[in-house]
Amino acid sequence: MHRACVLAAALACAAPPTLAQSTTETELSRRLDQLASELAKVKAELATLQQQRFAAPPVATAPAAATTAASTTAAASTTAAQGPGLAAEPTTVLTSYGEINYNRSTRDSKNTVADVRRFVLGYQHRFDEKTKVVTELEVEHAVSSSSDPGEVEVEQAFIERQLTRQWSARAGLFLIPAGLLNENHEPTAYYGVERNFVETAIIPSTWREGGIQFVGNFENGLTAQFGLTTGFDLNKWDATSTEGRESPLGAIHQELALAKAGDLSAFGALNWRGVPGLLLGGSLFTGGATHGQSSEKSRITLWDLHARYTPGRWDFAGVYSRGTISNTAAFNTPLVGSATLIPKSFDGWYGQAAYKVWSNEDYSLSPFVRWEQFNTARSFADLGAGLTPAGARTERVITLGANFNIGSGIVLKADLQRFRENGYANRFDLGLGWSF
Amino acid sequence: MRIALVGSIAAASALAPAAAFAVDYLSAEEAARLMFPDAERFELHEIVLDAAQLQALDARGVRGRSARWQSLAARRGDATLGHVIVDQVTGKFELIGYAVGIALDGTLKPVEILSYRESHGGEIRLPAWRRQFAGKSSTSTLRVGDDIANISGATLSCTHVTDGVRRIVAVFDLVKKSGGLR
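YS: structure for the whole thing
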């Protein structure tokens, strides 16, 4: 009886663990089945995904022999999922360029100057995949105050929206597509310490207007740009200043600073790059320039043709630009006797050749020569005998120098400039520039 | 160095640009098919360079940037036709996605631009510019201003994509010579 009781008790005690273990195994078995089912499901999903990604031709299934290796690298490959260089896209990018120049007159050393010509900070911020804002804030001549020569300028501030694969739109303050330099004006992008005269005296770089612009890029190499903007203000012409003689349009540009906007201007530019190394293009800008501020009306038109060819180590460039101001007789008549009357036409051209004589991974040296002819007052409207000023003499400038690039973001420059008309302007220039 | 076939979703996604772009012109797969139209399938490869190989790259004047690369191997039957590598470089301000195709003999296919979002310089997408790479190899200079013509107004984009291609060609040349490409 006792033994029977003990056995019964033992069985009673033994039964629960046995039953519990059985339950656990069942549970484990159930979970294994569930996992196997889920794994099969994941495999099926993966196969579907891969088929979708490589629909034709399909991605081969990894051979069994490689599976082990794959599993050993899986964790690492997950961390490398961005791939080499496939960095996350920053939404905001800080940009900058600047140039510090030294100009030594070869005939009159008292005119020698050193200057932080430009210091520019900008940012681009992307609001979404298709929309961004682009800005540049520039300080010229280092210090801007009532007793200093500097200026602070908003050089660009526009929104760009990608409309289709080919077309985008810009609105705000943007650079006008004219010549070779205006839209690519960073010191690393041009030869010589100073910007060329044609694209400063005739095309008033850095030339920007406020308005709307459409940009189209096409597979045949054509880039088309056109839009409606603010324009020049002829009412600003100061006949007592020589500024208009240095750059007629530079003297009356508005830069969207409380710009008179009664008259709008239209512009268009076509550039073709269908052959590697070759750029052929032209631009036209035209618009009213009086804005209802005077009884007379005037239209200002500026156009250019430009070409650049960069075969191998050579870099050839040329620009011709011509501007006209209509109805200047009416504006000049009351100004007769003043230092600077409004020209009827102004123009200029240059040809430039550069050759990269030496380069390695970090440095490159490119000597260049540039010949320029420009006339900021080619002709004046007829004011009557004895009153009509004669056109200015055409200045001719030869520039001989070299750019020494450190990487793609820093440039050291040196050049000599000889002026055929105004020999007192002859100078030796040194420059340091950067851009990123 | 080791090469492994990686069949993970993570690896598959690595061959697409990291972010959606303002203008995506091609996917990695479309680019691969353009470069190797005879391929029956593409297999994902991961290539990991060891320290000695990175040093060898440096000795060639190529900054390796990464020890880990991935490619799509174009296969036809048992034969490998070549590899396609997707990469990104900074243009002037923003990233450019591009694909480089290298045939098994080491010659390049025309570069394909997958995505471009700069305000200026999108002309590097032009076929005439991209075709300049076709037929070149690790023995080519592969430098803008030498054997690759520049595009006026897109100098930085041209230079940086060309530099990227030169790096990829050097990496694959190194791996091939070590017997690592299949």
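YS: worth flagging: Confidence is low (pLDDT under 50) at residues 1-20, 51-85 of chain A.
IM: good catch. Also Chain A touches chain B through 74 residues (CB under 8 Å).
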